[in-house]
Amino acid sequence: MTYNVLSIGDLIAAALLIVLNGAISFAFRLGLERSLAIAAIRMVVQLGLIGFVLKIVFTSAHPGITALVAFAMVGVAGYEVWARQTSPARGPWTAGLGAGTLLLVGLAATFYVTFVVMGAEPWHRPSVFVPILGMVLGNALTGVALALETITQTAKRERSAIEARLALGHTRFQAFDDVMRRALTTAMMPIVNAMAVAGVVSLPGMMTGQILSGVDPVEAAKYQVMIMFAIAGSTALAVMAAVVGGVFLLTDERSRLRLDRLMVQAT
Prior knowledge:
By secondary structure, the chain is mainly alpha-helical. It has helices at residues 8-15, 18-27, 33-60, 63-83, 93-117, 126-157, 159-167, 172-175, 177-197, 205-212, 217-250. The longest helix is centred in the C-terminal third of the chain and has 34 residues, at 217-250. The radius of gyration is 21 Å and the shape is globular.
């Protein structure tokens, strides 16, 4: 396999494209120049650091270090779920629900792909395990965040209807039936759209990276199909778990709607 090594000059040349974003922001007085600059700098620093970290992790190939990286990724993902909510639950419940869901589903899906599908030896080999876990978590995170946001905001808008159903003796899941289906549909739509346009409108990142590194395009396509199936399955499981957890969060054992458990807005 061969690939073109990028120099610092190449990266600077690519960075000039960000100037276009800044020019558009300036021309239309959007005020995004500072945010764009900070985001670009953060991206460079974060990717540079993670590149060095992963080089050490891949070289050591120690399962303990791989586990540490995996838990760190899940922790950050759980925080991102909380940060993306308009009205997260008071205390650690939203972040805990997001992190717990992503931990179980992410590790299970990654283990299935590396051990059962790919037959990697060992299955926890960091050069395989960490990238796949990252792709699974990144997509599942979006689904979980959308599911929780949809279920909390819809519950607030349809409070009267939900409370009426609960008062009539419906179970919490019967009362939230329409809300749950709406949350599931909203959360799963991004991955459905991604699969629908893959290979026609866009070349997904994993396939593009492999092609650029010299892998045969047909083999790269096989890997992309595999990872898209894994992402779709893990996202569906994570979204379902998040929606069920959200219903328990917004109701209590006495069949009462508990919107008081939500913060007014994210801080």
